[in-house]
Amino acid sequence: MKDFDFYIVPTPIGNLQDITLRTIEVLKSVDLIACEDSRVTQKLLNYYDIKTKCISYHKYNEKERIDEFLSILSSGKKIALVSDAGTPLICDPGSVIVEKLREHGYSLTSLPGANALVTFLSQISREDESFSFVGFLPKTQQKIEEIALEYKYHDFVFYESPNRIIKTLEYIKNVRPEAKVAYGRELTKIFEEVVVDKIDEVILHLKNNISKGEFVCLIFRDEKTGELTDMEDKIKLLQDKGFSAKDISVILSELYGINKNKIYKASVNK
Questions:
Q1: Cα(92)–Cα(112) distance, rounded to whole angstroms?
Q2: How do residues 6-56 score in pLDDT, each as one tens digit?
């Protein structure tokens, strides 16, 4: 097996047994494990009797660690990067050091392994393979609603915390009242739950059940129903910015070549 200077290593998202033999071998063989929280990572290491030393690497010290890691690698030692759960660089730290490693010519590789997004989607029946992953959503209502409209005709997936999931879905419902939703939480754990339903039913379910564990959520695409369907979201966004129906008809007609009068009528009736 080829040796690398730096290993990007996925770790279990809940069940400690969801780990590959190669992951165990790599974590035992490297000289240092860079991790978000050593207390979390140490539980995994203890479970598999891995004695490798850990060093903190998280979003607050990414840049500070660059020179230290480069110095360690230059001495011939090897480093593995892990996050608290799942795959590094997927809504987790790692991008900064990976960029610098490539700039300095160090070899690196990523091991296959646990990821909440893939674990969730493999349980969900969808129209096709196309989807958009947007990570963690912004916190403001306006930004969340804008994203929900931007991806109205595309399946989109996001992560959300248990204390925000209900409010986030309520924001999405404001602009997508008929949306179909799927979510997963506590994936791979004893209380794993996957729900697929209309958005209002999902919100009601969550209000009646204690939310626990990080959520992976899918908002299914809406069906297109006519020529102006693609313009409806853009019309609303421009209206929210204060543009008149006349201005909107001119702007969208010039940009997309749709009849100005049709856009004007849609703007007035919206």
A1: 16
A2: 999 999 999 999 999 999 999 999 999 999 999 999 999 999 999 999 999
Separation between Cα atoms, residue 111 and residue 268, nearest integer Å: 54
Q: In the predicted model, what is the mean pLDDT of residues 64-68?
A: 92
In sequence order, what are the residues at sequence separation of 6 or more whose Cβ sits closer than 8 angstroms to the Cβ of residue 5?
73, 78, 79, 101, 106, 107, 108
For residue 213, give both structure tokens.
């564990």
**pTM beyond 0.85:** no
Q: Which residues contact 17 (CB under 8 A, 6 or more apart)?
A: none
- Please provide the CATH number assigned to the domain covering 117-219: 3.30.950.10
Residues whose CB falls within 8 Å of the CB of residue 186, separated by 6 or more in sequence, listed in order: 14, 192, 193, 212, 213
Residue type, 216: V
| CATH architecture of the region 6-114 | 3-Layer(aba) Sandwich (3.40)
Q: For residue 71, what are its two tokens?
A: 């110095």
At 226, the amino acid letter reads G
Residue 50 amino acid letter: I
Helix-helix angle 165-175:199-207, to 10 degrees: 160
